[in-house]
Design a protein that fits this description.
Elements: E1 11-15, H1 18-30, E2 34-38, H2 44-47, E3 56-60, H3 67-76, E4 81-84, E5 92-97, H4 108-115, E6 119-122, H5 131-134, E7 138-141, H6 153-165, E8 169-174, H7 184-193, E9 198-201, H8 206-213, E10 227-231, H9 238-247, E11 250-254, H10 260-269, E12 277-282, E13 290-295, H11 299-302, E14 310-314, H12 317-343
Parallel strand pairs: 1-2, 1-3, 3-4, 5-8, 5-9, 6-7, 6-8, 10-11
Antiparallel strand pairs: 11-14, 12-13, 12-14
Helix pairs in contact: 6-7, 9-10
């Protein structure tokens, strides 16, 4: 996590072993400090000249004995001492689910992994705008857009593995969850093949959270007791349309604007009724979030101006959201009427 204080030109002494202190050194350097190093309690001669009276001492918890005596002398001399955590482990990869694009829905584990990273490879659907405040790591954009893949999936995997083998703590930050259409399984397999330690931190999937942002529950008592999540990147087969139409419940389609026409036509051909409620939720949790509600038979026309990233929701739960919205608006009208009467 980056420092919010401006230390431009200030002398800062960072104590702790090189491995443990590497991220603290980066953070204080990014804040403008002139960083000096002391890697062992008795290592002044080895580490080079040190400032006589630094602005502050950043004490990294590296597990070595002997630091407390030195730090006590600094405090006695009136030099502030700030405790810093040890850097994260090197030579590993962590796949992190970034949720639907807002830092408010990052998990605690995700925030910690970003804080401890040396390199972060991120996608455009991850909450990348806030990354500079969450991590002092090198930030590398490997995002792909439909029809535009500046860095192929294979190259992303090579970059991750090579960086980890070079001794970095690597984070691969994705939108949603790594294992929900995130190609996380492929990336784990690449790490395993290269004998690179790898772990996965689940994220809040947009399949549930984006409909929720529009007030749509994917399940609802006496309405839908199941939901199916489908990728919208490629058109479905006739057999898949038939299975979806006959299964019932709620259908959630991720990134489905490009195949919306085929989806609507395929489901109608498979027997789904034309008046089945349908919603398109664009840019969930982001500026410009918008929900378009229509029916299966008219959704292609209603959503003509919609663009990805978007989540499609098909099912009676869309009516539940409309009913709840109507109740909320009616309650708001009553509140406004009561306020005006009290004012009178």
């Amino acid at each position: 996590m980056q420092l919010s204080i401006d230390l431009t030109g200030r002398d800062v002494l960072v104590t702790g072993s090189d491995h443990a202190a590497r991220q603290a050194v980066r953070r204080y350097g990014a804040a403008g400090a002139v960083v000096y190093r002391l890697s062992t309690p008795q290592g002044a001669a080895h580490d080079g000249p040190l400032p006589e009276h630094p602005f502050l001492v950043a004490a990294v918890d590296d597990g070595q004995p002997g630091w407390e005596t030195l730090l006590d002398r600094c405090r006695t001399a009136g030099i502030p001492v700030v405790a810093e955590p040890s850097a994260g482990p090197a030579g590993q990869v962590t796949l992190v689910g970034g949720g639907p694009g807002t830092t408010e829905l990052l998990t605690v584990a995700a925030v910690k992994a970003l804080r401890d990273a040396d390199v972060v490879y991120y996608d455009r659907l991850a909450p990348y705008q806030e990354l500079p405040s969450l991590s002092s790591a090198e930030l590398v954009d490997v995002g792909k857009r439909p029809g535009h893949h500046p860095v192929s999936q294979g190259d992303i995997q090579k970059l991750m593995v090579q960086s980890a083998l070079a001794g970095n703590n690597v984070v691969r930050l994705k939108g949603g969850d790594p294992y929900v259409f995130g190609r996380g399984g492929e990336e784990v397999a690449a790490c395993v093949a290269a004998k690179v330690p790898v772990r996965v931190i689940s994220g809040v999937t947009s399949a549930i959270s984006v409909p929720a942002a529009a007030g749509i529950p994917v399940t609802h008592r006496d309405v839908s007791h199941m939901f199916t999540v489908v990728s919208g990147h490629a058109p479905l087969t006739e057999k898949e349309h038939t299975h979806l139409a006959g299964l019932g419940g709620t259908i959630v389609v991720l990134m489905g604007i490009g195949t919306l026409h085929q989806l609507a036509a395929g489901l109608r051909k498979a027997g789904m009724r034309a008046d089945m409620p349908m919603a398109v939720v664009e840019r969930g949790y982001r500026p410009g979030q918008r929900t378009t509600i229509s029916e299966l038979g008219t959704i292609v026309t209603a959503a003509a101006g919609c663009t990805n990233p978007a989540v499609l929701v098909i099912g009676e739960v869309v009516r539940v959201a409309e009913a709840n919205r109507g109740h909320a608006e009616a309650a708001a009208d009553l509140d406004r009427l009561a306020a005006s009467l009290l004012g009178a």
